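Tutorial, part two.
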Amino acid sequence: MDILYIIIVLAVIFVSMTLHELAHGLVANSLGDRTAYDFGRLTLNPIKHIDPYMTILLPMIIIITNMTTGASVPIFGGAKPVPFNPSNIKYGEIGVALVAISGPLVNFLLAFVAYAILVVSKAEAGSLLNSVLTAFTMVNLGFFAFNIIPIPPLDGSRVLYALAPDFVRSIFDTIERYGVLLIFAIVMVGGSLMVTYMNFIIVNILKGFSIVFGG
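Running the prediction step on this input gives:
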């Protein structure tokens, strides 16, 4: 088992999920809600954002599965959600949707920047730089594809919630109570379907990146 690879991927996950959650907090703060600030979550300290199951256990299961079986499951995970009070957010549900989408957009931007550096630097395959940049690209695309799934408590559900009729919102409110348990259930029961969806999203984004950089 490649220990260096595991260390690189976990380090990338910690950085990526920290920036993801920080984005939620900063956008919420800019829209009038100071809850994240009051709870000490407007910080780059990853320890404040770690969820033992979503940040460590789930990614490790995926990493080990890929390394031992040769599978190509996208690496994804999450963090302890940054708290915010929707009633304090400007622009109602639209503002809440902006808070939600900010996290995945940061992951998309990190992937884009890492890919750009990878292309410009022409980092040699197998080098440490290549491994780090590739990990940054793939992990953040995995985070992006996973978090935009419109199922509570994922960020995509908040965007859909802002546009949905009341009866759909009531369903989402009920589902969201189960939180992390629901995510693990989705992974276990609908894992193959979710992997197919995520790979479709990731592959097509990479094609777009390749076009942008003349690949």
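The mean pLDDT is 91. In part three we will examine how such features are distributed along the chain.
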